Amino acid sequence: MYSTQETAQLLQVYRDGLLKDTLPFWIKHSIDREYGGFLFSLDRDGTVISPDKSVWIHGRFSWLLATLYAEVEPREEWLELAQHGIDFLCRHCFDTDGRMFFSVTREGRPLRKRRYIFSETFAVIALAACARASDDEAMAREALDLFKKTLHYLQTPGLLPPKVNPETRPAKGLGVPMILIATAQELRKAIDDPICTEWIDRCIEEIEQNFMKKEFECLLETVGPDGAFINTFEGRMICPGHSIEAAWFILQEAKDRGNDPKLRDLGLQILDWSWQWGWDKEYGGIIYYRDAKNLPPTEYWHDMKFWWPQNEAVIATLLAWQLSGDEKYARRHRHIHNWTYDLFPDTEYGEWFGYFHRDGRLSTSLKGNMWKGPFHLPRMQLTCWKILEEMREANAS
CA-to-CA distance for 222 and 172, rounded, in angstroms? Predict the structure, then answer.
């Protein structure tokens, strides 16, 4: 699908976009040297527009910086900044019960604590990546301990507040098994503990058995405790970007196990279903929400184009092509890459816009908030750069 010259050009787009655009934007504008950590709520030009700090993005950015140090180049600045973020997390972002806050003030005073465990999982991967970069066994053990503590909260009834009354409508969400796969994959790079692969296997099985619905050919966001379909707005919800992200986590596990055919086929099936639900045949790009029965979704942003589902689709289609050799994934990768790169990059100030209406009109010009920061985009750029390097080397051999 891609010629040798096209592959080289595409590789350069991802590599240079990461190292010469995305990363410099965040390093220039987000570092808080006065109070520690990072400031992620930025206007288009990098101006700080809110001082409050997102805890989970601290973990994400620290993970990115330490991973770049370990896998790209040992630049001392990257490792120092990764530790800068981890120091802020450890000083200010843990509550007395061992759980983490979702947001804090610039100085580090607690603002909000959510019922989810995403602050914890991203702290795990930050600690794991920094441990790997600095060869710090104690930090790797700290990451493992936090992972185990997170599992304890997830497995112990009553420790996490429920979203709805579990006596009336017990349910569970796709986000937990999905994020645990990615967390365990990153933790496994830093410490050789069987709990990582054990939980990866467990979560993949849960996704396959409970969240995959052949009758709708989709991955649902919310199901009953044993996978039962819930015929409500929430129970019918499909988030194609989320499903595509889960697909490539499973494909990555297949790759890590020597292109395991069972895992590969499972990931490809989820990707195929999710692409059919998500790809906007009229305007292009991945739509945010769909309803499994094709009823009207309740969320007002259901047809918007956020940056991160596009990022996940770019990774998933390229990885699917690498593992399967099926040209349809190369075609899909070309479609999503070209559509996304025509719309999202800010050629004047750098980095990417995050939010567009369905027809491609810009919704807001901000570059960061409590959800958008240096993670989905740079992870996409790094992952695709490395995949293309592997594919180029394979073709040359």
Answer: 6
DSSP secondary structure of 269-292: HHHHHHHHHHB-TTT-SB-S-EET
326: containing domain: 1-30+180-397
Let me know whether 263 and 355 are in one domain. Answer: yes
Q: Report how far residue 227's alpha carbon sits from residue 191's, in angstroms, rounded to the nearest whole number.
A: 32
Give yes or no: residues 248 and 194 share one domain: yes
Residue 212 β-bridge partners = 219
Q: How confident is the model at residue 67 (pLDDT cuts 50, 70, 90)?
A: very high
> With pLDDT > 90 as the criterion, what percentage of the chain qualifies?
95
Other C-beta atoms lying within 10 Å of the C-beta of residue 307? 22
Average pLDDT value for the chain:
97
**195 and 339 inside one domain:** yes
Nearest to 61 by CA among 141, 140, 133, 126: 126
In a domain, 9, yes or no: yes
Residues 55, 114, single domain; the answer is yes
- To which H or E segment does residue 65 belong? helix 55-71
Taking CA atoms, 222 is separated from 160, 174, 229, 236, 290, in Å, by 17, 6, 8, 8, 13
Q: Clarify whether residues 199 and 142 are in a common domain.
A: no
Domain identity same for 42 and 186: no
Query: Mean pLDDT lowest for which of 259-268, 277-286, 386-395?
Result: 386-395
What Å distances lie between residue 29 and 104, 130, 349, 391, CA to CA? Answer: 19, 22, 12, 35
pLDDT over 80 (residue 397): no
Report the alpha-carbon distance of residue 161 to residue 116 in Å, rounded: 9
What is the arithmetic mean of pLDDT over 183-212? 98
**Concatenated DSSP letters for 114-172?**
-SS-HHHHHHHHHHHHHHHHHT-HHHHHHHHHHHHHHHHHHHSTTSS--SS-TTTS--E
Question: What's the CATH number where 145 sits?
Answer: 1.50.10.20
Q: Does 270 share its domain with 326?
A: yes
Query: What are the pLDDT digits (tens) for 119-153?
Result: 999 999 999 999 999 999 999 999 999 999 999 99
Edge-to-edge strands, sheet with 53-54: 53-54, 103-104, 110-112
61, 136: one domain? yes
Phi and psi at 362, nearest 5°, equal -70, 130
- Domain presence at residue 275: yes
- The domain that holds 214 is classified in CATH as 1.50.10.10
CB 366 within 8 A of CB 44: yes
